[in-house]
Design brief:
Layout (H helix, E strand, L loop, with lengths): L11 H13 L4 H19 L5 E6 L3 H16 L3 E5 L8 H9 L4 E3 L9 E6 L11 H13 L3 E4 L21 E5 L4 H4 L9 E5 L5 H7 L3 E3 L2 H4 L17 E5 L7 H12 L4 E6 L4 H5 L6 E4 L3 H7 L5 E6 L7 H10 L3 E4 L2 H4 L5 H11 L3 E3 L3 H7 L1 H4 L6 H12 L2 E4 L5 E3 L5 E3 L12 H14 L4 H19 L5 H6 L14 E3 L1
Parallel strand pairs: 1-2, 1-4, 2-3, 4-5, 5-6, 6-7, 8-17, 9-10, 9-12, 10-11, 12-13, 13-14, 14-15
Antiparallel strand pairs: 7-18, 15-16, 16-17
Cofactor: Mg(2+); K(+)
Protein name: Bifunctional NAD(P)H-hydrate repair enzyme
Catalytic activity: (6R)-NADPHX = (6S)-NADPHX; (6S)-NADPHX + ADP = AMP + phosphate + NADPH + H(+); (6S)-NADHX + ADP = AMP + phosphate + NADH + H(+); (6R)-NADHX = (6S)-NADHX
Length: 503
Amino acid sequence: MGEALRDLLVTPAEMAAIDEDAVHSGIESFSLMRSAGMAVSAAALRLFPSASRFVVLCGPGNNGGDGYVAAAALAESGASLAVFALGDVGKLKGDAARARAAYAGEIQAIGTYEPQAGDVVIDALFGAGLARDLPDEVQEAIRRVEDSRRPVIAVDLPSGIDGRSGEIRGASFTAAHTVTFMAAKPGHLLLPGRTRCGTLEVFDIGIPDRVVRARAGDLRINTPAVWQQHASGLDPATHKYKRGHLAVFSGPQISTGAARLSAMAGLNAGAGLVTLVSPPDAIAANAAHLTAVMLKEMGKTGDLAAWLKDRRLGAFVLGPGFGVGKKARAFALMLCGRALVLDADAVTSFKERRTDLFNTIAMEGGQVVMTPHEGEFARLFPEIAADTALSKIEKAQAAAKLSHAVILYKGPDTVVAAPSGRTVVNANAPPWLATAGSGDVLTGIIGAHLAQGMPAFEAAAAAVWRHGEAGTRAGQGATAETLVANIPPFDYSATRPMGRVAL
């Protein structure tokens, strides 16, 4: 697999088109199936060399064909084997029928399978193209396997996971390992599918990179390859203003902590200067906690208008602990022509006035990033959030197009989408990032990137990745403060390979 494909995400529809294009280019379709099935058998023997028996569950389509190829290879290796099929194997067509014919062993009905001690199950029932609930007999087989706690190797995607959305269609296997082909699918990274895949192996079955790239859209796994060209090292002759000046707006006296977290994160993430902009009543509280972060008093829109004449101000963060209401809306609208992160209260403040915000962003043309979590997203984009036919990726894309801003749709499966359609799904965040103040730290990192001149999409994608790495470095006892201290530098010469990753 070429380097260009390692970070690629393709939808099931795109993958189907890629398969067709490969065949039209002269590649025999059965050779692709054979490569897929052989990869599965190799994974089974490599991962479970002491298995008492491999049990292959084969579906009625090409995923089942991959399973029959794997079964034939396992039988040839001398492994103990049992094959169970869904439906009438006499009705198989095309490559699946050819694969079935190449397997000489007995095939039993899936309803007769009873897990035994020592079984390793190979799930070749349904792949990433599944878009309906599983048949009852498959759901029952899944329950038996899950109850038995037998390890499962999934072919393409655990059966029951929608490859487009990651949703569970009635039931699904929980795999220890998943082997997919050419590129990962959204269902491998989006929840809840992500939690059912185990480790993910992306295997090259022989489709040329150019064929894959020709059909793939603008969807990627978030890795440094997406934004690294915008994260160049510091010039030895640089000074603090070249590294960017970030301004973070504080809330009132009793709500100052969130903004200070963002400010410190921005400083640690590389901004040359950070100023905390404080209302008069919070000056004393903020001053008592700041050292390297500068402090500026500001109460009214007129004060902000005067300050904005200083073009050295590179980027702004508005929202953490700021308060919901008229002042947040006024400040946000004044900043839409600049590099701006709108988070938390700033997002919620436009619940009833979102057209004002979206039109101003479009008119002013600033580099604007909005960072809603699920609740905030539903408040600002209620019709998109309520559309159950859309995946999280599609919701983020629709919101970005509507708002004219980069949308960072937060969660364990954070999605970053640009109005142009470019989208990344993040996969490096540990679960203990779900801690108070974590989002404020993320917001500050985005602000630092914007202050240093990164475009909004790359600034947001890079920040999500660095935030995840900070969580890993901080460990399971991470707090917002330790996240700030563990923000990694922009040094990504050795990035993690995507050939096999734990999800």
